[in-house]
Design a protein that fits this description.
19 strands; alpha+beta; binds FE2/S2 (inorganic) cluster; about 375 residues; binds fe (ii) ion; eight-stranded mixed sheet; 6 helices
Length: about 375
């Protein structure tokens, strides 16, 4: 497939780095084991502050993180049974966001009408997922499919990456398999060739041929021989808003993207490896191998991407109109998809209630672009 610059899309390429999200999808917001019964966790999905709490019975709830009494953040509050009590005056809210008790209200006096927004929330793949958009659509949207997750043949290495960057830079990085150069000392691939590119309303699928070589590549199942080059197809799939990258049944990774703000994003990541070890050997070694691979490979790998992406963001902030030269058609496809999804979302929202799409930069985009394990993971976050 030909690689070429596409100067016609320059306006799109500039504005995509301020684009908002389509909120009508499930977003991973944190690791489930980091929220015990009785605890509250503050999360942000594209400027929306949300208090996620696990009640005394283990059930998850997600409420707008601002008490309707005086606006204090509800995540500072206290879980009482299945209710969340605001820290300031103790008003209690149920899972629908309704105030159901005010401790100092005189007996017999009617409760005021005080309500916060409640969000659909669920737990799967050791992650907490929140649906920030139209809650009537939550059941119609599926979580990413991760068949390797429960398969004992795979070694799973979860991790988290925090980017001081807009999610578009992270997404471009995920579909850009021409940057094996960056990871040359962390089992990077080489000689990439883009062989196929498919684009639908909500997906981009890009297939590459990449080559591996070396002892670590052989151990990880990426290469047939340590001293000879093995070339394999790699398929990157962007199922908005999340990514997967699969190397022909030998390894795969899933990146659950959380857009936080115009300059902050997170990824909850699963790496899967099919090691060349018999299952009776692999099973007892899994916890140690998981730790080892995370420390020696994955965290360094992610840190290199974080550094590149943040560098792009910094230079973008210095001059948002700066004309960058891109030659990867898969990056253009991802850019088009991000803009298309955002526009679909804003067009479906009443303007006055569209909290997710309310930044001035994203509004101008809409005008200008009419065409288009109980896992201990706390210490494993890659940050800048
Ligand atoms: S501010 Fe929340 S109860 Fe008063
Ligand atoms: Fe990378």
């Amino acid at each position: 497939m030909e690689l070429a610059t596409d100067l016609h899309n320059q306006a799109l390429r500039t504005s995509v780095h301020e684009v908002g999200i389509n909120g009508n999808y499930w977003y991973a917001v944190g690791w489930a084991n980091q929220l015990k019964p009785g605890e509250v966790m503050p999360v942000t999905i594209w400027h929306q502050a949300i208090a996620v709490y696990r009640d005394a019975f283990g059930h998850l709830h997600a409420l707008e993180d601002a008490c309707p009494h005086k606006g204090v953040a509800l995540h500072k509050g206290k879980v009482q049974g299945d209710l969340l009590a605001c820290r300031y005056h103790g008003w209690e809210f149920n899972s629908e966001g309704q105030c159901v008790s005010i401790p100092y209200l005189p007996e017999g006096q009617k409760l005021p009408c005080a309500q916060v927004q409640a969000y659909p929330v669920q737990e799967k793949y050791h992650l907490i997922w929140v649906f920030p958009g139209d809650r009537a659509l939550a059941e119609t949207k599926a979580l990413p499919d991760i068949p390797e997750f429960d398969d004992p043949d795979w070694l799973m290495v979860p991790s988290t990456a925090c980017f001081q960057a807009h999610f578009s830079f992270c997404n471009e990085n995920s579909v850009d398999l021409f940057h094996g150069f960056l990871h040359e000392h962390q089992q990077g691939w080489f000689d990439p060739v883009l062989t196929r590119l498919q684009e639908t309303d909500a997906t981009v699928i890009a297939e590459f041929q990449v080559s591996y070589k070396g002892h670590l590549a052989k151990f990880l199942g990426l290469s047939e021989h340590a001293n000879q080059v093995t070339t394999r197809p790699v398929v990157v799939e962007y199922h908005y808003p999340h990514f997967s990258c699969k190397l022909q049944g030998m390894s795969s990774n899933y990146m659950m993207r959380l857009p936080v703000s115009a300059t902050e994003s997170r990824s909850f990541v699963f790496f899967f490896f099919k090691l060349r070890l018999p299952s009776w050997v692999l099973k007892p070694l899994k916890p140690a191998l998981e730790r080892l691979l995370r420390r020696l490979l994955i965290l360094q790998f992610l840190a290199q991407d974080v550094e590149m992406v943040e560098s792009e963001q910094l230079n973008h902030l210095k001059d948002p109109a700066w004309r960058r030269v891109e030659i990867n058609p898969a990056v253009f496809a991802v850019q088009r998809l991000m803009v298309r999804q955002y526009l679909q979302f804003t067009e479906a929202q009443p303007v006055h209630s569209n909290a997710i799409a309310s930044t001035s930069s994203t509004k101008s985009l809409a005008v200008n672009e009419q065409s288009p394990t109980a896992m201990g993971l706390a210490s494993d976050v890659v940050r800048s």
